[in-house]
Amino acid sequence: MSSRAASCPSCGGEVLFRAGSSVVTVCPQCRSAVSRKGANLEALGVVAELVPTSSPFRIGMTAKPKAQGLKPFRIVGRLQLSTGEGTWDEWHVSFEDGRYGWLAEAQGTFWVTRPLPPPTNPPPPEFHQIAPGQRLSFGGYGEFTVTDRRQALYASAEGDLPFAATPGAVFMYADLSGADGSVGTLDYGDDPGVDAFFVGRPVALAELGVEGLEGWSERKVAARASSLNCPACGGGLQLKDPANTVRVACTYCGSVLATPQDGASSAKFEVLARLQKLPFKPLLPLGGEGTLRGRPYAILGAVLKACTVEGVHYYWREYLLKETKTEAYHWLVESNGHWTLVEPAAAGEVSTAPRLAVWRGTRYKHFQSTTARVEAVLGEFYWEVKKGESTDVSDYVAPPRILSEERYANEVTWSEGSYVPKEELETGFGLGAPLPAPEGVGSNQPWPHAETARGFLRTVALFAGIAAFLFVFFNIKADRKVVYQKRHDLSVAATDPTIAPDAFSEALTVVTEPFEVPHTGNVEARIDAPTDNSWVYVGAVLLEEATGQAYGFGLQSDYYHGVDGGERWSEGSRSRTVYVGRVPAGRYVLRLEPELERGKAPPYYDIRLRSGVPRFAHLMAVLVLLLLGPVALAISKARFEGRRWAESDYGGGSGSDDDE
Ligand SMILES: [Zn+2]
Ligand SMILES: [Zn+2]
Fold it and tell me: Residue 481: beta bridge partners?
């Protein structure tokens, strides 16, 4: 540690350089930024008063991080930056090993970044070439997505800084999001080339291990205590997030209130726009609290948004939520009564292809791209939300999930959400009245019968399994008793010249001796004949002696073969089997009436009857019947998807042609 005391060149008071990385220190007596170059001290200018912020840190705090790879550090300086839309702190930290880094906070998330040699192969683009959404590959450092390209004013400072710059200077920088969840910054300073490159990771406040930190508890006490009366209508307003709120739209009169920009008294709100009545009616109680998906939330504000497609205006509402445990900001988006809970997603973790986006292994299909406008606001907001402000939005869906990209002028953000049935909100936020029923199909609404279908398909699979088991079981158990078997001679009769050609069948017809069919069930009948480029057809009738009940069937044997163009061929079959269904047990005779071609018939045919033979076709019929249900479900799902996509960029006009 090279902490070193010296005399301020401006006022002569004592200044202290707290760390080896300290290039500048702000004189606590006269607020001069004093730089050291070797033994020479130089006053670079006077820094402005600090703007009060909600940062939980102070100079002098030490940290023993529990997060992996982070060494113990000391907070030695505070840089206050401003973009005109807000002021924030970045804390200069000095690590045990003498190196330095920056500790920053945004929307409840913390980062510790450390300087690395700027990438050289390839070198980063110059400031004017860099664009939000751009994907940069930095060799060994990996892939990064540009999320933000900005200029910020060096507004104020306290303690020590690791660089020498004139207070009031404008810094250019680009924020990066890494493919592995890391964060990075390209610092351009005040010229187009990169001056410094910082890389780090998001760290939870608890993981930072900052000692003497009152942190959340202190900020929460402030939150509970904070209330004000609307300067426009006098209504009493309770702020849920006073430490971060910079805009309030009065929930009684709709007037928009703002904290003054100079920050002199951040508690006081002034009327920015006076309204006489509420611009819209939120469906969720602003300021209300509840639990959703196991997390405690406060409902801070609501934004009415709209887009215009082919002259038609579409409206939806976005509710700003604060997760009260971690202070993270989430959203509930409501469109046509369909609700989605949305959280920020790291841009670097999203990769896109035409009509596709991939985030953490899930593939989302492009649904629509549109320009969203802020139409009206109510409640409290941590940024300077403006009516009329517009963003380009692209939605990608993998129901019930949705992935969205929003582009502003210099910024790109991604968010990821999942569909929330309205009943979950009614219970979670203890709503007195039910929310309106959803209309149509939501862009990321899951098919409502998915659960039923899963149960149904399980049942179908069970029945199919039982049917297959029973078939195998009966197949093994079946006795397959041969009840009739005999060879019938054709040679004599077929060649008898005294029989007229049209009287063959009659002459060859036989009626067998009676035989027993022992069990009611299928009878398998089989023909086998030595046909050789010839055929025989046997018309058969199974006749029950007692009742005269008849069961007719036909059996054919035909076999043809030869050589054609050097190729051997054959067709037909010498033996065939048919089944006669539901034959009652009893005594039967068989009437056999053969048909054949004179002189070309086989010498004989064999007939065999077996009873008690299970039929595979019956199993197939059962399985086909079982499939009817799943097919109907598949059709229902396809129709649902058709209605979903009719509302997308790929819907092709009106949705009426999807109701067929
Ligand atoms: Zn001084
Ligand atoms: Zn009011």
Answer: 611
